[in-house]
Amino acid sequence: xxxxxxxxxxxxxxxxxxxxxxxxxxxxxxxxxxxxxxxxxxxxxxxxxxxxxxxxxxxxxxxxxxxxxxxxxxxxxxxxxxxxxxxxxxxxxxxxxxxxxxxxxxxxxxxxxxxxxxxxxxxxxxxxxxxxxxxxxxxxxxxxxxxxxxxxxxxxxxxxxxxxxxxxxxxxxxxxxxxxxxxxxxxxxxxxxxxxxxxxxxxxxxxxxxxxxxxxxxxxxxxxxxxxxxxxxxxxxxxxxxxxxxxxxxxxxxxxxxxxxxxxxxxxxxxxxxxxxxxxxxxxxxxxxxxxxxxxxxxxxxxxxxxxxxxxxxxxxxxxxxxxxxxxxxxxxxxxxxxxxxxxxxxxxxxxxxxxxxxxxxxxxxxxxxxxxxxxxxxxxxxxxxxxxxxxxxxxxxxxxxxxxxxxxxxxxxxx
Length: 416
Ligand SMILES: *Cc1c(COP(=O)(O)O)cnc(C)c1O
Known about the structure:
With about 425 residues, the chain is an alpha/beta fold.
């Protein structure tokens, strides 16, 4: 392969969505950022929108701002539905965090399958997902069936199918694995779950804005996801949830807040849930975060998820090729080898991964370490260039060739 930097420059020059980088605030062009899958960059439009919202809407309009803010959760949800998730308006809404939405929808699903005593999850799901479902199972005395998943290859649909029977109420999994980036077969798994009458709940945190999510094609029932990763809505921005239209009124979520009530401002006695996705709301929405979601989703919509996914595959594959050429046996691919089978991040394995991670940060490259022994490289396609791949991997090559990373502690820090 062509190992020159010129090759990367040529790829950038031909990149049909390369100009989207200019829509982001990038104060340090030398910094190589491989963590857009954990916290996306700040869009310039968001900075402007938030300044305006703070000064004009909060500062000047004060409580009168609610005339506009009251519809924000829904309008942000509709933008995500149309441009990121490819489902209908009214099927997605912005609310709470991913963890809380997961709890709400999982509880709603369990209530909708009374008499069934089992929940199917896998042992490699993101920790918050596993804990939330453990907690629900414990509180209700349900059986948690934990399917074994290879941490690199991803979820095996046959293993999930083998855990299914007519006692299963809910199957809850991630679409794109947070560590390896492996994409789960949402169509096969949802079909198998539906065959036994179970509902499916998908975590889309590493999918939204990175890959096509086959919610429609699979007939998936429920989904949650965050907006601060590929959707660039900022730290702690509100999450989204999806409930398929025909299920919305059959399901009820367990936190009966006033924003979920029909005719909210009647302030009436008794909880009576709205007849729409609004019933999945709880309380006052985070307005500033909501604006950030709208601006971030707009950029994603403009680039188009298919173009983003295609570039993501090319970036992860280029990273993998450079890693193989330059770092050979000291760094091995841990993600699925077929770029179509992974999201927009790629993960490598080395017993020295944590030390490499620390040395890279000191050299102006920000990757992620994920236990065990995994170096995770996130390549958010909206603003990551091929030269970023080249420069970061070249710095890693130089570090490893000189063993510079071995001077960093091998013991893990508190935040990795
Ligand atoms: C990032 C991430 C989360 C985060 O959940 P929060 O409630 O926002 O902390 C959950 N699930 C997965 C799969 C993630 O990648």
